[in-house]
Design a protein that fits this description.
Elements lengths: L3 E7 L5 E7 L12 E4 L8 H19 L8 H11 L2 E2 L2 E2 L4 H4 L2 H14 L6 H17 L11 H10 L3 E5 L4 H10 L8 E3 L12 H10 L6 E5 L2 H9 L3 E5 L6 H4 L5 E3 L5 H10 L2
Parallel strand pairs: 3-6, 3-8, 6-7, 8-9, 9-10
Antiparallel strand pairs: 1-2, 4-5
Helix pairs in contact: 1-2, 1-5, 2-4, 4-5
Length: about 280
C-alpha cells in the first residue's frame, strides 16, 4: 500500500500546487537533508492542551497580581488580554502572539492592549511576570504535555539516518529542555534554541544559522518542521526546506503559500525524507 500525505511544491513560476498525492511524485530538488530543526509546541507536543490551558490560568493571575480588577471590569479585562495574545473564545489565532511569539513580544502586545484601557505597565514588568506564570502553568502537576506521536521512536529512527536534530522554539531554553526530558527525547537532540535574550526570535534565522554552524552543515541542508506560518518564513530566511505540520494551530490554507511540503504530523517526516532521497 502506498503512503500518502499532503504536499505543497514550489513550481518554477513561484506558485504552489497542493493536494493529497502519493510519495515520489513531482519532487522539488533539494540539497541532501542533514539536519532537522523542529518547532516544539503544536509540532512535537499538543498546543491546545498545554498552552490554552496555561493561558486560562496566567491571564487571571496576572490581573490579580497587578490589582487590575480595581481599575477595570475583570471580565472585560480578561477578554482584552486574551485577544491581545490571540485567543478568541477557545480558538487560537495561528498568527496570534501565543501561537508563535516570544515572551518579550507577547508582553509588548499585552502592554499595548492595556494602554488602550488607560492602564500603564512597563513591558519589562509584564515579561518578567508572564515568564514566571507560564513556566509554573506549563510545568505544574496539572499541566498536560501530550506528545504528537511516538517521539522516542521517531527520533531514534532519524538519528539512525545520521541526522542532526534540534529544537527552535519561542519558549525558553530551560523550559524546552524540561519538556524534552519529560518526553524522553532530550538525549537525541544536538541543539535546543529558544528565548534566551541573545538570539532574535523566529522568523529571524538566528537559531537556524546557529544550529547549522554547531552541526557543521549548511543552512540549506536543514529541514524545518513547524505548525505556523512563522516557522515557514523562518526556514525561508535561510533557504532551508520548510515542512508544515497540521497537528498544531494552522490549517492547510494557512500554510499553503509558505511551506515547501505539508504533512499531517511529524510522524510522516521519515516517509518524506525517503521520497526526497529517492528523487535524487
Amino acid at each position: 500500500m502506498e503512503n500518502f500525505f499532503f504536499i505543497v511544491i514550489r513550481s518554477g513560476r513561484g506558485q504552489k500546487e497542493t493536494g493529497l498525492e502519493p510519495i515520489g511524485k513531482h519532487w522539488r530538488h533539494f540539497m541532501r537533508i542533514k539536519g532537522i530543526l523542529f518547532d516544539k509546541d503544536g509540532t512535537l507536543i499538543d498546543f491546545f492542551s498545554l498552552w490554552l490551558y496555561a493561558a486560562r490560568r496566567v491571564i487571571p493571575e496576572f490581573i490579580r497580581g497587578n490589582n487590575l480588577e480595581e481599575k477595570q471590569n475583570t471580565t472585560e479585562l480578561e477578554n482584552v488580554l486574551y485577544e491581545s495574545i490571540g485567543i478568541f473564545s477557545d480558538q487560537i489565532d495561528p498568527n496570534g502572539a501565543l501561537a508563535y511569539k516570544s515572551y518579550r513580544e507577547i508582553a509588548q502586545d499585552m502592554e499595548r492592549a492595556l494602554e488602550r484601557l488607560g492602564i500603564r505597565i512597563e513591558t519589562d514588568q509584564i515579561e518578567t511576570q508572564i515568564r514566571e506564570l507560564f513556566d509554573q502553568a506549563t510545568h505544574g502537576e496539572e499541566a498536560k504535555m501530550i506528545p504528537l506521536g511516538d517521539l522516542p521512536e521517531l527520533f531514534q529512527f532519524l538519528k539512525k539516518k545520521n541526522l542532526y536534530l534540534g529544537i527552535a522554539t519561542a519558549d525558553t531554553v530551560s523550559s524546552a529542555k524540561k519538556c524534552m526530558k519529560q518526553l524522553g527525547v532530550l538525549e537525541y537532540l544536538d541543539y535546543i534554541g529558544g528565548d534566551d535574550g541573545k538570539k532574535r526570535p523566529k522568523p529571524y534565522p538566528d537559531m537556524l544559522y546557529d544550529f547549522a554552524e554547531k552541526s557543521g552543515i549548511l543552512p540549506q541542508q536543514v529541514m524545518v518542521a513547524g505548525d505556523t506560518r512563522n516557522d515557514m518564513v523562518f526556514a525561508e530566511q535561510a533557504k532551508a526546506t520548510s515542512v508544515g505540520v497540521l497537528s498544531g494551530v494552522s490549517k492547510e490554507r494557512d500554510l499553503a503559500s509558505y511551506a515547501d511540503y505539508i504533512v499531517p504530523s511529524v510522524e510522516q517526516i521519515p516517509a518524506l525524507l525517503d521520497s526526497l532521497e529517492g528523487a535524487k
